[in-house]
């Protein structure tokens, strides 16, 4: 399962209700998409800017468009700008992918018997597998593999950790997640930190 799909699934409860603001999850999913390309050796990140390392077609139209745009840019594009652009419709796109894969189902209910509300409950076994992997990472003494560490970092950056790690005291969780983030590969850490900065800015804008 792709990193963006795992983060999306963690962003909702068992009934398909969002655990964080949609803007935060959009930003996190955008960051996950960039991290996927970094881990695949397709994109580099340094000093807050992106570079295309390997540009042959991936078969993913959105990823291919992004790689082409980065490669053709006269200057390395800023990470913050890329996250801001990729966040638009990010969770809607991943929801469509997961519906097609059968991981999500669409359920329409009526609030107070009148107002229709659409939820997207997930396959609980799939979510449990992801959550258990993160639980072991958070309780472990060694650095988890890069995709798991990146997911831990994104969960922390979009403020999902209290929802995901419900049985772990915050006093021990915060330092552990920060430690995992600090040991990420520099390009991945830049993206995670960029996600955290944008999430904070979006939250400030909402309550301004």
UniProtKB/TrEMBL annotation:
- Family matches, as Pfam families: GPP34
| Record keywords | Golgi apparatus, Lipid-binding, Membrane
InterPro entries per the record?
GPP34-like, GPP34-like_sf
Organism field = Asanoa ferruginea
Any one GO MF term held by the record is: phosphatidylinositol-4-phosphate binding
This entry carries the following GO cellular component terms, namely: cytoplasm; endomembrane system
Q: What is this protein called?
A: Golgi phosphoprotein 3 GPP34
The record's listing under Gene3D superfamilies reads: yeast vps74-n-term truncation variant domain like
Chief place where the protein resides: Golgi
What membrane topology does the UniProt entry give? Answer: Peripheral membrane protein
Where does this one sit in the cell?
Answer: Golgi apparatus membrane
